[in-house]
Specification:
heterodimer; A: mainly beta; Rieske Iron-sulfur Protein; four-stranded antiparallel beta sheet; 1 helix; globular; B: alpha+beta; FAD/NAD(P)-binding domain; five-stranded antiparallel beta sheet; 25 strands; 19% strand
């Protein structure tokens, strides 16, 4: 049976204030972030501006700065912060017993 | 007894405290002689018959005669399981505290409600209320409420409540008082408190928690909220401006420099109309900066709208400028980014993409060989040791010393281009070759092949020494006056690998025809018959700047020392992301000359400090990655293969 959640690894595999990616065959990667306070979030790994890889950006507070042109995106909503306008799809995440799980349906949607 | 605390998480009490408060706690415990190791993952207890050490997963052994372990609590569910009740981490209950058997009810630490298990007393009382309401057939249902924790850890007061993880629409109000060891952070969302962390002074914890639980609007008291209940709801004192206005003239405003309110006002009246002018006029707010807010209030009270803006601040996280931060890092011997943010009263929990890379550089420069570089505070290129391109692939530039190459190096580069199917290879302006279109996963393999041919990172991606461009000089050229190629190679060997405020380019031309374009470089040497002209502060780019002539020296050794001394002066005094051209323009060529020319000892001192820091930076970062360092940066965490679901 196909589960609703995808187990992608241990939470410690994502550095604090850093990120890792989940490669989705046939689609965009999913970027998985861990904030300074240990909260985990997932977004499509693609800035709404010029498609920079958000997983390569600097994570600060609850946001990530895109490495290409320094757009700041909220990790919770995927919305651009400040003066910029745009949004990247979010993927629900939960951490269970130290394992990181991402929502299967949203992953498919975000990666497509 | 010598105590070492091992903690698997990166900061202490990570559930109760945010990173900043955790760091304060760690520092306080360390000053009492305890050794605290965070991120320490214990693998085994070593010993024959009796304990001798604890071994960590990274192989470190911590010698020990006694090991005390604390592993948390978990509900005892054996009885419930034997009785046939549904059990997860605890005994599962619904909103009315009923277990999977309707005749059995459960409350407290043994239950699991909606996936959560509680270890505090407050939820127990709420559960009892829900259970009682259910029994008398007026079911209210248990709704988990925000909880708070107030603890004394080794005599230090800590408090936390609600959700202090921030997130969307959440705003942080932060107060840091470094000298008293106090940190307060209140998280506000839609004018309501949603979380709080207090360290050192927890007197207002219950007040914040009360406001949080009642969901009361704090819009009216927001300005004074962080100062606590007495201040925020103290009638006439609710306006912080008014509070400062009524302070007597002899009250001390700046504790570091002993400046009273009267002296600050006299200084303002004497013509100091900006924060910076007050700082230089009477020294108030010029040391730790914790009274900056009060000084600004006094300026506003005295001058109304006529306060002049000071120099640009580092970023929105602080009212300090780059020079202030740098001076204090050195003066207070700070050692880590969280320490800088605490001692300089940062207004955000972990900074931003502007200030973190700057702190990282300033600390690296101040503590060569001692400071542990923070990868998460580096821009992507410096983290990946390659240049990111618009499609997310990277370009790779191996070092070619002084622009020289060989058949072996060219073959290795050609092989890499074919093996990894690189779509383009290009000659750069810095006399080397740039291989384009390499995927992040392939970078270590590319580097391994280049390393095997003797090549190292060209740092084409870094705020660091980039290239040393040369012409062929006296070895070949009929006009050449000196061995410009050889000198260029020797300079590159001495300077490669160094981190700088911004990128740094060098060139050496063999005669005044200047084919290596040395007069638009950060440091340029133009060889002449009688010696070497040293030029500084040039760049191409948006605003082309020609260099200024620093001096002329007679020997190659003197030219190399001058180069090292200039680099170190730039490293120690320029602001992060300030290239040498705007830097020399700002401080003046005369200043640079005064530091480098009249005093041979001072010049040698600068050059020696540079040589010292180079001992720790001349390791090829590519070789480290090839050997397996930070392997995870180059690999996805997981791979997902949808089954016929993707278009």
């Amino acid at each position: 049976m196909i589960g609703e959640w995808l187990d992608i690894g241990w939470v410690e595999e994502i550095p604090l204030r850093g990120s890792r990616t989940v490669q989705v065959d046939g689609g965009d990667d999913i970027a998985v972030f861990r904030t300074g306070e240990g909260k985990v979030f997932a977004l499509r790994d693609r800035c709404p501006h010029k498609h920079g890889k958000l997983s390569h950006g600097i994570v600060h507070g609850g946001a990530v700065a895109c490495p290409l042109h320094n757009w700041r995106l909220s990790l919770t909503t995927g919305e651009a912060l400040g003066e910029d306008r745009g949004c990247t799809p979010t993927v629900p995440v939960k951490v269970n017993g130290g394992r990181v799980l991402i929502c299967r349906a949203s992953t498919l949607q975000a990666a497509a | 007894m010598q105590v070492t605390v091992l903690h698997i998480m990166p900061t202490l009490m990570e559930r109760q405290l945010d990173e900043a408060a955790g760091w304060l706690l760690k520092t306080a415990l360390e000053t009492r002689g305890q050794t605290i190791l965070c991120g320490a993952d214990a693998a085994e207890i070593v010993g024959d018959g009796r304990v001798q050490a604890v071994r960590l997963k990274d192989g470190t052994d911590i010698p020990a005669d006694l090991v005390v372990m604390a592993v948390g609590i978990r509900p005892s569910v054996a009885l419930a399981r034997e009785a046939g009740l549904e059990v997860g981490r605890g005994i599962r209950v619904d909103d009315h505290m009923v277990t999977s058997d309707p005749k059995v009810l459960a409350v407290g630490e043994c239950v699991e409600h909606d996936g959560q298990v509680y270890g505090l007393v407050a939820p127990l009382w709420d559960m009892c209320r829900a259970l009682a309401d259910g029994l008398v057939e007026a079911p209210s249902g248990y709704k988990p409420a925000a909880t708070s924790t107030k603890l004394k850890v080794a005599g230090l007061d800590v408090f936390s409540a609600g959700d202090f993880s921030g997130g969307d629409g959440a705003e942080d109000i932060v107060l840091r008082d470094a000298s008293r060891g106090i940190y307060k952070r209140v998280v506000v969302k839609d004018d309501r408190i949603v979380g709080a962390v207090l360290y050192g002074d927890t007197a207002d914890g219950s007040w914040y928690f009360d406001l949080l639980r009642k969901g009361e609007s704090v819009a009216d008291i927001r300005d004074a909220l962080i100062f606590g209940q007495a201040f925020a709801s103290g009638g006439g004192q609710a306006d912080p401006n008014a509070a400062v206005a009524v302070v007597s003239d002899d009250a001390e405003i700046c504790g570091c420099n002993g400046v009273s309110k009267g002296k600050v006002l006299a200084c303002i009246d004497g013509g100091a109309h900006s924060l910076d002018a007050v700082r230089s006029g009477c020294k108030a707010s010029a040391s730790c900066g914790s009274c900056t807010g009060i000084v600004e209030t006094l300026l506003a009270l005295r001058l109304g709208g006529e306060v002049e803006a000071g120099p640009k601040t580092m970023c929105k996280c602080t009212s300090f400028g780059h020079d202030d931060v740098r001076r204090e890092i050195v003066a207070q011997a700070m050692r880590s980014i969280p320490e800088v943010m605490q001692k300089l009263h940062w207004s955000t929990p972990d900074g931003c993409s502007s200030c973190r890379p700057a702190h990282n550089y300033y600390l690296l420069c101040a503590l060569p060989g001692d400071y542990k570089d923070d990868q998460q505070s580096r821009f992507v290129n410096e983290r990946m040791h390659a240049n990111i391109q618009k499609d997310g692939t990277y370009s790779v530039v191996p070092r070619m010393w002084g622009g020289l190459t060989s058949p072996k190096e060219l073959r290795a580069i050609a092989d890499v281009v074919e093996k990894f199917d690189a779509p383009m290879v290009k000659v750069t302006s810095g006399q080397r070759l740039d291989i384009f279109g390499i995927k992040k996963e392939d970078l270590p393999a590319v580097w391994a092949d280049l390393n095997a041919a003797g090549m190292v990172s060209g740092h084409a991606y870094g705020k660091s020494l980039r290239t040393v461009k040369t012409c062929v000089g006296s070895e070949w050229c009929r006009f050449g006056t000196q061995d410009s190629t050889g000198l260029g190679v020797r300079i590159e060997r001495a300077t490669w690998g160094s981190w700088m405020p911004h990128k740094f380019k060098i060139a050496v031309s063999g005669c005044p025809r200047n084919c290596a374009e040395a007069t638009i470089k950060d440091f340029g040497i133009v060889c002449v018959d009688s010696g070497y002209e040293c030029h500084v502060g040039g760049n191409g780019g948006i605003k082309v700047c020609a260099t200024d002539l620093l001096c002329k020296v007679a020997t190659e050794a003197e030219a190399m020392e001058m180069c090292a001394a200039f680099i170190q002066l730039y490293r120690e005094e320029a602001r992060y992301l300030e290239r040498t051209a705007p830097w020399t323009e700002r401080i003046g060529l005369a200043y640079v000359q005064s530091r480098l020319l009249p005093d041979a000892d001072a010049r040698a001192g600068l050059a020696q400090r540079f040589a010292h820091s180079q001992q720790f930076s001349q390791d090829d970062p590519w070789a480290a990655r090839v050997a397996g360092a930070e392997r995870e940066i180059h690999a996805p965490m997981a791979r997902f293969q949808p089954v016929g679901e993707m278009a």
